[in-house]
Write a structure and sequence with these properties.
Layout: E1 4-13, E2 16-19, H1 20-28, H2 32-39, E3 43-46, H3 53-68, E4 75-81, H4 92-103, E5 112-116, H5 122-135, E6 143-152, E7 165-175, E8 180-190, E9 196-197, E10 205-206, H6 208-230, H7 248-263, H8 267-276, H9 288-302, H10 306-316, H11 323-326, H12 333-347, E11 356-363, E12 367-375, H13 379-384, H14 388-393, E13 396-397, H15 400-409, E14 429-435, E15 441-446
Parallel strand pairs: 2-13, 4-5, 4-6
Antiparallel strand pairs: 1-7, 1-8, 2-3, 6-7, 8-12, 9-10, 11-12, 14-15
Bound molecules: acetoacetyl-coenzyme A (CAA).
Acetoacetyl-coenzyme A (CAA) binds near residues 39, 160, 162 and 209.
EC number: 2.3.3.10
InterPro entries: HMG-CoA_Synthase-like, HMG_CoA_synt_C_dom, HMG_CoA_synth_N, Thiolase-like
GO molecular function: hydroxymethylglutaryl-CoA synthase activity
Length: about 450
């Protein structure tokens, strides 16, 4: 069977940066370490006044196509995953195609376009759709452009405000991919949950503490479901484990449970038993509560062991390096985590060709998905072509007052667009260019 997977990746960050420890924490009267240590975040990315989900997605896709020497004829579908859409009918992919048609000679009239919604897991679902389309043989030799783009804003004063972010990840899904081949095996954990939702409103209704528990519960189901088709997972199976990363502290919790689950009945559990005992087993307890308490105590000790720390530092921590600087990108977050881990490997001269990644996506509402990916021989060139460090370094750092201004500019209920002043000059990129006759958003390319 021909390999199908991710052939190219581009990351586009919002051009503004809010420093959480230096700027946000003092304004909120918080200890900076709540952000840097507790949540694991240093900064958030925000879109400048002329940026939005369309410009970030189109700019990422444009760079990807230019770099790969592609024309619209090479693209058979454009799927956008977002939970920040501004139109309940016309998909964001049409706006992005419209942007790209301004800079390419050909059009995308032949391309199937759509928009995927299931909170943050929709980016992974769009990759799935592209994978299935290619596997079904309906692609006529073409590739799919998958764009995960979000402006993750919370109402001011919401606890989620600390985890905001904005950016897009564009991915090319093709036969014989250069970056990773996707496994056929997948695991799902999906349930009707009300942890985080936006019932026809821009800013989410969030039960933050519960959302953390729902993430863990659905992820646990997805891991078990994956094991039911792919076999029992051992912690050494995966060289990197990119998770959906609303904030790195969330991944720290998920990773501890993943490690605990995958060392059970292995030589690692036996080796650790000398120091911290074996994992509690439910049959040894009279009540669920006593079992859960004992598991909690075991986990607290487990994460302090050298074995766990070594595993975490090698397999999980590298996937969090970009996220720490940009915050939550919702649909793009797990794809940023994958890119971050690969970038770390490249910078540390690791030979990853043939290595296996375990990719764990999550979307509120709620669904987790787990699959494996095999790193392909072209990964180094692809990851070396990313300019994400340059983009991060060039961000304009906003004061708290400027943050409040830009938050208002992007608030759909506030009429600030007319006088919205940008903090950075646009150059060589698509920009928001006002409103059209039917309430549509308009875009133009700035040389
Ligand atoms: N030094 C070190 N650590 C500190 C600290 C300090 N001074 N002060 C606090 N901390 C730690 C806390 O102990 C806590 O860590 P633990 O959870 O490990 O105990 C962490 O920092 C955060 O502190 P709080 O729990 O007090 O923070 P909070 O209540 O203000 O907000 C939150 C946390 C509820 C997750 C909030 O950020 C939120 O609502 N976020 C949005 C929802 C979200 O991202 N949920 C994640 C799962 S859902 C999902 O993944 C989908 C999605 O993308 C939204």
């Amino acid at each position: 069977m021909t390999a199908v997977g991710i052939d190219a990746i581009e990351i586009r960050t919002g051009k503004l940066e809010l420093d959480l420890a230096e700027t946000f924490a003092p304004a909120k009267g918080d200890d900076p370490e709540k952000y840097t240590k507790g949540l694991g975040l240093h900064a958030s990315s925000f879109p400048d006044a002329y940026e939005d989900i369309v410009t970030m997605g189109a700019n990422a896709a444009h760079r990807l196509m230019e770099r790969k020497g592609l024309t619209p004829a090479d693209i058979g579908r454009i799927d956008v995953a977002t939970e920040s859409a501004f139109d309940n009918s016309k998909p964001v992919s049409t706006y992005i195609a419209g942007c790209l048609e301004q800079v390419f000679d050909e059009d995308f009239h032949h391309a199937n376009k759509g928009e995927r919604k299931f909170a943050c897991v929709a980016g992974t679902q769009s990759i799935d759709d592209a994978y299935n389309w290619i596997r079904a043989g309906r692609h006529r030799g073409r590739s799919a452009l998958v764009i995960a783009t979000d402006t993750a804003l919370y109402a001011r004063g919401d606890p989620g405000e600390a985890t905001q972010g904005a950016g897009a990840v564009a991915m090319l899904i093709s036969e014989d991919p250069d970056v990773v081949e996707l496994s056929t095996e997948q695991g799902f954990g999906s349930a009707d949950e009300t942890d985080f939702l936006k019932p026809n409103q821009q800013f989410p209704s969030v039960d933050g503490k519960r959302s953390v528990q729902v993430y863990l519960a659905r992820m646990r189901e997805a891991v078990r479901d994956f094991e039911s088709v792919a076999g029992t997972i051992h912690p050494d199976d995966f060289t990197l484990l990119p998770f959906h990363t609303p904030f790195p502290g969330m991944v720290r919790k998920a990773a501890a449970l993943a490690y605990r689950h995958t060392i059970r009945d292995t030589e690692i559990e036996e080796e650790l038993a000398e120091d911290i005992g074996r994992q509690p087993r439910p049959e040894a307890f009279d009540s669920d509560e006593a079992y859960v308490d004992a598991m909690g105590e075991y986990t607290d000790e487990l994460v302090e062991t050298d074995q766990y720390r070594d595993w975490y530092d090698r397999v999980v921590d590298p996937t969090l390096e970009i996220s720490r600087e940009v915050g939550n990108w919702y649909t793009g977050s797990v794809h940023v985590a994958r890119a971050s881990g690969l970038k770390h490997a490249l910078e540390n001269d690791m030979d990853l060709t043939g290595a296996t990644l375990g990719v764990a996506s999550y979307g509120s509402g709620a669904q987790a998905e787990v699959h494996a990916e095999t790193v392909q021989s072209g990964w180094e060139d692809e990851i070396a072509a990313l300019n994400v460090d340059e983009q991060l370094d060039n961000r304009y750092s906003i004061s708290y007052e400027e943050y409040e201004h830009i938050h208002d500019v992007h608030n759909h209920d506030k009429d600030t667009d007319a006088e919205a002043e940008a903090f950075t000059p646009p150059e060589g990129e698509f920009v928001f260019d006002g409103w059209g006759r039917m309430g549509e958003r308009k875009y133009r390319y700035v040389e």
